[in-house]
Design a protein that fits this description.
Its cofactor is Mg(2+). The protein has 4 helices and 10 strands; from the N terminus they run E-E-H-H-E-E-E-E-H-E-E-E-H-E.
């Protein structure tokens, strides 16, 4: 019988949809797949969550005497310090984007061997619809020349973790996931992918 439960394999019970619902769903799919692919893609994008993916690199001083130090950047509009970060280019691996952004924004040329995934590696920003893939690197600050372009980045400077300057709200939240800075309590929140 059409409306009676049936078994797909021993031990599992599968209920069939009502004939009317089956016809409506089938009609909907038929209409949807007759739409040109370009428009179909646009329709899907309108109703699905879209996230931008970026790479962030936490660059620490490997030879710090005393408190650990991190490299921060001052960028326009200059309302706080930030981290070396940027969006992934098409088909770019997140670790390569971290190396590229470090070079572009600070002048520090990192190789993938020098960069390690942070734990957690992905931080999801639900309100802004973006995901940060976070990496760490350690370089000797005293022997590492910093170079900024003056347009995208105004200044790069090493700061002790226990004496951080005013950072942007997004930077404070991101650092908080790693137990650093004014929002270190965020380390235990659930919006990170471990």
């Amino acid at each position: 019988m059409k409306n009676e439960p049936r078994t797909a394999d021993p031990g599992s019970l599968v209920k069939r949809r009502s004939p009317l619902r089956t016809k409506l769903v089938s009609f909907g799919y038929g209409v949807f797949y007759r739409i040109p692919p370009r428009w179909r893609s646009r329709m899907v994008k309108l109703v699905t969550a879209r996230y931008s993916v970026g790479s962030v690199v936490l660059i620490f001083d490997s030879e710090a005497d005393g408190p650990e130090r991190i490299l921060l950047l001052r960028q326009p509009p200059g309302r706080g310090w930030t981290l070396p970060a940027g969006l992934l280019e098409r088909r770019e691996a997140p670790i390569m984007a971290a190396c590229r952004e470090a070079g572009e924004e600070t002048g520090i040329r990192l190789t993938p061997d020098q960069v390690t995934p942070a734990v957690p590696n992905a931080v999801v920003h639900h309100r802004g619809h973006w995901v940060d893939m976070v990496f760490t690197a350690r370089v000797p600050a005293a022997r590492t020349a910093l170079s900024v372009d003056g347009a995208e980045v105004w200044e790069a400077r090493w700061h002790a973790l226990d004496e951080l300057p005013v950072v942007t709200p997004a930077t404070a939240r991101l650092l908080g996931h790693y137990g650093i800075g004014p929002e270190a309590h965020l380390r235990d929140e659930v919006d990170v992918a471990r």
